[in-house]
What does this fold into?
Amino acid sequence: MLSRAAASITLLASALLSLAVPSFAGTTTDGQEFSQVERGRYLARAADCTACHTAPGAAQPFAGGRGIETPFGTITTPNITPDLETGIGAWTDDEFDNAMRKGIRPDGSRLYPAMPYTSYTKMSRDDVMAIRAYLNTLTPVHHEVTVNTLPFPFNIRLVMRVWNALYFNPGEFKPDTSKSAAWNRGAYLVEGPAHCSVCHTPKSALGGDKTSQYMRGANLQSWFAPDITNDEVSGLGRWSAEDITAYLKSGHNKITAATGPMAEEIQHSSSQMTDSDLAAIATYLKSLPGRQTSAPQPVAANDPAMVAGQAIYRDQCSACHGLDGRGIPQLFPSLAESPMVRSSDPTSLVRILLRGAQSLATKAEPTSPGMPSYAWQLDDAQAAAVLTYIRNAWTPAAPPVTPKDVDRVRSDRETRTN
Amino acid sequence: MVRRLPKKDVVIIGLGWTGSIMANELTDEGLDVIAIERGPWRAAPTDFPPTYIQDELRYRIRHELFLRPDQTTFTFRNKMDQTALPIRTWGAFMPPNGVGGGGVHWNAETFRFLPSDFVVKTHLTQRYGASFLPQDITIQDWGVTYDDLEPHYDQFEYLCGTSGTAGNVRGKIMEGGNPFEGARSRPYPTPAQPQPFSHTLFAKAARDLGYKPFPQPSGNLSQAYTNPLGVRMGPCTYCGFCEWFGCANYSKASPQTTILPVLIRKQNFSFRDNSEVLHINTDGSGTRATGVTFVDTSGQEWEQPADLVILSAFTVFNVQLLLLSKIGKPYDPVANTGVIGRNYTHQTISTVNGFFDKDKYIFNPFISSGSIGMCIDEFNGDNFDHGPHGFVGGGYMGQVQTGGRPIQSTLVPPGTPAWGTKWKQAVRDNYLSTVIPGTGVHGSFYSYRDVYLDLDPTYKDRLGRPLMRITMDFHENEIKQNAFLTDKFAEIIKAMGAREIAKHPRTAPYDITQYQTTHVCGGAIMGDDRPTSAVNRYLQHWDVPNLFVLGASAFPQNAGYNPTGTVCALAYWSAAAIRNQYLKKPGPLVDA
Amino acid sequence: MHFRRRDLLAGTALFVLGGRPSRATLISGQIPWEPDAGNPPQPVTPGGWHFFTASEGSTIEAIADRIIPPDPETPGGKDSGCAVFVDRQLAGPYGHNGGLYNKPPFHKGSKEQGPQSEKGLAQTYRDSLAALDRYCRATYSGKSFADLSDSDKDAVLTALESGKAKLESADGAAFVKQLITDIQTGFFADPIYGGNRDMVAWKMIGFPGARYNYLDWVHRHNQRYPLPPVSLQGRAEWTPKNG
It folds into this structure.
């Protein structure tokens, strides 16, 4: 629903666009510069533009129209093909750069941070121009997208100026000369184009990063993006750098498998990055200290939830995850060693248990084994018991899961798409 | 009105084992391949998960994973002078339906045939003389040899990760394996599965009697495995719900667990499920296939044109489609002319159950897998002198019990009433200490003039097409063979320490209500001799060179082993011929 | 997509092709998958008869208790739910030749040609129970089967089973054979289908039920497997015992 103010802005913007000059006027991109386009394509993959700007099932990519769920409502992504009327073909380079690195649209209104300009600000202008050069080579798609879809008062983009003042730190990435080149490359990728923080850093009530808890895991309504700091208990502390790169490249490593939103990310983005870039990301992530609290005392083995959970585990889960909880490397996740199992927020665990999951298929790992749905077989108390069991049967332990946790996800799933 | 689809290089009818193998090979050649599958897509997490696949009633007794007879069935009679009647509910064999075909719910017993099996006519005639063979037997040589197929057996075994102990590696006889097997180029990709108690006990008894028992080659893997395509499988966990059921934890070789994850990602491959091919289309000359016509669940008919047609729809449906499409000359058993439908065979199965002292034996029959078992091959093929016995053929035998599912594994000793207090007590006392081998004696089924397939004159399927008619009975040869083998088997069961045994030899007439494996073979047989075979040694149709017919329909007769290993080796052999010869120069690969 | 429960064997719906919604579209690129996918069995709802009349139900219960008599260790056919099992089965596709080839012409063939009856099992049961009732009343001074003493019940079943006694307008021997099959099947099937209540039959024989991993027991030859049976709906130990 459009407010009057937003409606008139949109009208003005469209009017401006329709009077705009052809796409290559005033541009510093060179349509013939092949290596710039190639670099732009690589960066567009690293930035995973397609994840948001391509609607599911769309015949052509980047034409927008995908709904991005936020705590404030659903935002519809714009068309970023070079179409003159409905895409960004008429934007100047400066306008594109302002959008990417400052969150400002050509008409001066602010983008919502669902568009991660808060991360892309770290990119250099050269990088942004390379992406522009790549996007300019796409087939223009005439696809009108109604972009203002948040409910009042969030549809008033003026609010964003205030938000930016609180949460947006503009500016390019500055290398840390005391760190290695690999670390700096990893930091640049993670903080910049790959924008991992958007999912993995918890947010305040207004949706800004809680910077003191950088990368320690965040709830995304129906999933929990886990802690990816080097924390020994809940993060990647027990993963080697090779475990990280294998996961990002193929969706699988000897400990676990990617599913859900991360599977999408790997499929479109990190599986197509170079091995050295993935190694750089691993170097950077392993340097993040995390909260470094010690694991809680495990729930006692004779606790009713543990007793019940063990029975369920023995009868059901052990079929794939093994009697010892260690799964089969590259095939069935090792619950005994998986940090995701020990997430502070069990949302993803509950969701996977109830709905089932298909792991990612990549060229390197095509098998993509799936987990069945347990919603019909386990009630809330049973589901909570078996999840408590897998979080406490092996060290380090994690807090129990309650029937309420299960119910929250179970009833949540009725109204959400996957 | 039939709607026409864009042409593809290859259309594959049926996406089971042979369809998947051929699709993967031909897509590797860069061809644009589409497969049309009559049944649904199915996979472990969505269709046979460990939450509910362990359901004997639903899957074993009510046949849920199989074709529904009301979709299509066959008619059956023993003799030509009878009227065939519909098989209204399955019994003797269980036709598959769906992606993966029988590869989803087989046991995964992965045998090779003997070298002599491929030249059985020549071999038996040479050894025993033509007059030793039964009258009306129509066995023939295959047109390929074991040596031709060896690399392709190896290819299939390594695709599956088959678990076994080799018996003959490049001529060297290996301890613990089958000393009678044809030489293999290398050992199995994974070691044999560890055997539970009763199977181990059988092996000991067999050894004590002077036999050389070996572990049944198993597509239920003994350990985690990654195949040459990069697809990963897990170890079998002995759930005891194998044949009739899909595998829930990626440890049984099937198209889904070995090929489809790679195949489905290829840009040049796609498939349609729930789409039934009605007939293979040919041009006016009848010597060129132009594609297929199929119907989807909305009733819409589609034409899928293609340059190359692969018929891989399972034995009986291959033959049915050839007959309905009027490709090849239908077999006439009276005139002894024609080829489509002749040499139809099954398997000669029997068993001996053993009842043991419950205070001394706890077998835990529920701890088992589909291809677990210790077998002996002394009485298979021509591994023994048939001269004194008056029959030809044979089979392996073994304690190959695949589970202890209670509806079918609560047997009582002979003489026990079928119900009541004594029955209940006997069930209670015997369940854990009974040996129920199942297909304990697994004998060959040779081909005969009056055992064949043709189209039924009366009964039709839901689309109005004639059902295929099965005319099948046992011949004396197989009954004698089985009586001999069953007696030998009984000796071993007794030697295990059974308190009493119950022999169940196979008797005539052939009964369509009694399950005897789904190893139905023949009807579109291969050979070097054009008048007596439907396809040549490369499984290429003699009359229609751009049509290849894969599956056990190619078997001129059935040997004393489970057929899938040979079915898939032939599929690889045929694929190699297409890739290396046919595609370079389309046309007949064999002059005849 | 969505979660589907199918009334496959619990009474109402007919078989569907493999349980998946028919699609027949082109599949390529990746293995088809949906959340909440699957076709789990629908548990039998307890209470009442879905097919049998009250008197038919009583007769079946009485028969079930002779096919599988109660003893101090294990309930009989009635208390273990076998009559409920048969009732629910007959109310569903099993009773109505669901999925079978039902086209005419129907001719009686040889034994080896298999069943050729147009009449489904549900109707056969109905007709045979009526014939059984008439037989009992005629032979035992107006008593129905359920009213007979246990030894008389056994005598009736034995006589019909052997062919020494015949039912009028029903095949008594075939009916007894069918009863034995269906009642004993219900006794050993998963409790989700109504029989084998509380897994009593599995406990009787030592079958551990719907398990999936025995890797730690393959090598333990000749030892009693210690874990209790579990059904498709789990077992009591799955529920935390708080307080």
Summary: The two ends of chain B are 40 Å apart (CA to CA).
